Task: inverse folding
């Protein structure tokens, strides 16, 4: 059975100054050293909604990290 593709991110939102567009940084938990920066929320949403995510599916990993628990899976 194939596991569903899942992603976990740390999201940081900020403004350069009052009245500026909201900017964002998205950090994939799997790759904390490769943050993605977005100049506005539209770019962030486009990335999150894109059907062709450039990140490899969880099924392609050679090892599953069993030390992390999720609400929908066993530990």
Result:
């Amino acid at each position: 059975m194939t596991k569903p593709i899942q992603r976990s991110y740390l999201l940081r939102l900020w403004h350069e100054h009052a009245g500026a567009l909201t900017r964002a940084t998205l950090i994939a938990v799997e790759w904390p050293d490769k943050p993605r920066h977005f100049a506005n929320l539209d770019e962030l949403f486009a990335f999150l909604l894109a059907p062709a995510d450039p990140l490899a599916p969880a099924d392609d990993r050679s090892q599953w990290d069993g030390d992390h628990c999720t609400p929908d899976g066993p530990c």
Notes: Residues 9-51 form one domain.
